[in-house]
Specification:
With 327 residues, the chain is of the alpha/beta class. It contains 15 helices and twelve strands. The strands form three sheets. It has a five-stranded parallel β-sheet, sandwiched between helices. Strands 6-7-8-9 form a four-stranded mixed β-sheet.
């Protein structure tokens, strides 16, 4: 029989885990403000200066973390891949070139499986960066740059299962990836190149790629009669029409809501200037789909005019964002 106290105990356990791992994060942040700062900056300088790729390696739980760090580096503009240290000494050392750099991860710094890849890096003068908590370990002594993690309690009550330690490894890897992203000037457009699929790819789509322009754009000139404007709204099917002034710049917009507000007036006798809402919300052609969606949600509207140098060039509807999977 399962004790009715289990839910309470499990919640308490989860809270202790979070607080323990928070302690590790605080210790890592403190280290980055002190002794870890100089070697971290040196590591970023070393990696940003190579012509090849970053090889990330580790064994056990550190190996899993290494694989994730390699994937994060690769997706943020730093060519990288994971090499298993055991497979390395059985032929995969040939994957590592002299223009590469190696990041080796081991909490103790004494993982025997790393000896082959470490020796290879020394033989061919391949930059070696260690991520370890073992300041006097074999890995730290062999490395060109040692990123020393602070000692912190594991969340495991026995102090055995890697939890806080692997979290710190992972976060330090993220720190390296993001610092390199910023050093390289990696933009959202670059990010889109590496992430074309899924919702992330959709959110990185630009307004110019999904907007309706040209003949599809609902647009009339200032001074147009409301009769003509309503025909334009009906013909284009977006539930609105943009108004351009005598210079071709966006002057306002008429939506279904504007029509309802003037329903009691002699609507067809009016001009668009009498009904339009001036200064409508707009976006530029290079606005990300994610930003457009945020603006639509915040304003509780369904369309945004796309303007280039104040001139209307397109329209983006909420349905366009739904169609590409951004919403």
């Amino acid at each position: 029989m399962i004790s009715h106290h289990i839910p309470e105990l499990s919640i308490a356990s989860a809270q202790r885990t979070v607080l323990t791992e928070q302690g590790g994060m605080a210790a890592l942040a403190d280290a980055l403000s002190n002794g870890l700062a100089e070697p971290f900056a040196a590591a970023i300088g070393a990696v940003s200066g190579i012509k090849g790729r970053v090889i990330v390696t580790g064994v056990g739980k550190s190996g899993h973390i290494a694989a994730k760090i390699a994937a994060t580096l690769a997706s943020t503009g730093t060519p990288a891949f994971f090499v298993h240290p055991v497979e390395a000494v059985h032929g995969d050392l040939g994957m590592i070139a002299r223009d590469d750099a190696i990041i080796a991860i081991s909490w103790s710094g004494e993982s025997a499986e790393l000896k082959g890849i470490v020796a290879y890096s020394r033989r061919f003068s391949i930059p070696l960066i260690a991520i370890t908590a073992g300041a006097d370990s074999a890995l730290a002594r062999a490395a060109d740059i040692a990123l020393l993690l602070p000692r912190a309690a594991e969340a495991c009550p026995h102090g055995l299962a890697p939890t806080t330690s692997t979290l710190m490894q992972l976060v330090l890897g993220d720190c390296i990836a993001i610092a390199l992203l910023e050093v390289r000037g990696f933009t959202a457009d670059h990010f889109r190149t590496f992430h074309p699929g899924g919702q992330l790819g959709a959110n990185l789509t630009l307004a110019r790629d999904i907007m309706h322009g040209g003949e599809a754009l609902p647009l009339v000139a200032s001074g147009t009669s409301m009769r003509e404007a309503i025909l334009e709204v009906s013909a284009k099917g977006f539930g609105c029409v943009a108004i351009a002034d005598e210079n071709g710049k966006l002057a306002g917009i008429i939506t279904d809501g504007d029509l309802r507000r003037h329903i009691d007036s002699d609507l067809l006798s009016l001009r668009v200037d009498d009904v339009m809402t001036p200064n409508p919300k707009t976006i530029a052609p290079d606005t990300l789909a994610a930003t457009a969606l945020q603006m639509l949600n915040a304003a509780a509207i369904t369309t945004l005019m796309v303007v280039d140098r104040e001139r209307p060039v397109g329209i983006v509807h909420l349905h366009d964002l739904l169609r590409i999977g951004a919403a």
